[in-house]
Design brief:
Shape: elongated
Number of strands: 2
Helix content: 40-55%
Structural class: mainly alpha
Order of helices and strands: HHHEHHEHHH
Radius of gyration: 24 Å
Number of helices: 8
Largest sheet: 2 strands, antiparallel
Strand content: under 5%
Strand order of the largest sheet: 1-2
Distance between the termini: 65 Å
Amino acid sequence: MALLQEWRDYAYSEEMQNSKEGEKLWQNYFNLEKGIYEQLLEAPEETVEGTVQELAEKYEVPLSMMVGFLDGINDSLKEKNPIETMEKDTVVKINIDIEKLYYNMVECNAQWLYELPQWENILTKERRKELYLEQKNSGTIHNENRKVGRNDPCPCGSGKKYKHCCGR
């Protein structure tokens, strides 16, 4: 079984979702994730490359947590990794699309990540605000239908004025 499926079966299992053990697992994961991002964002233009096992050792995290991290960051990379089939000896690259990463962090409500101090040296405050608003507005549905006036034709299609039809 591929490492990613093992991670998902474990981390997203029903018993992990509804238990103290699961709560500890995710708290530990988020702390480790934050540590990896702090290191990556120190030199965001650099491409990090190595086997999954080597990266786990480099960032001092368990292999399963590195797999979870690679799954989470994959959509924010310039070139995606073969996460579905990766094993511990699979060579992966972390070449971050900075703006996409920030946008995705906002989308996931990962405030502990998109508020890291390293962002101040990467994106201007204004650009971070633009990306934040762009993401938040992407899920907002704007109702462009104007209010029907009382003397307008009824939207039901009867041909009558609104005030003499559905507006009664």
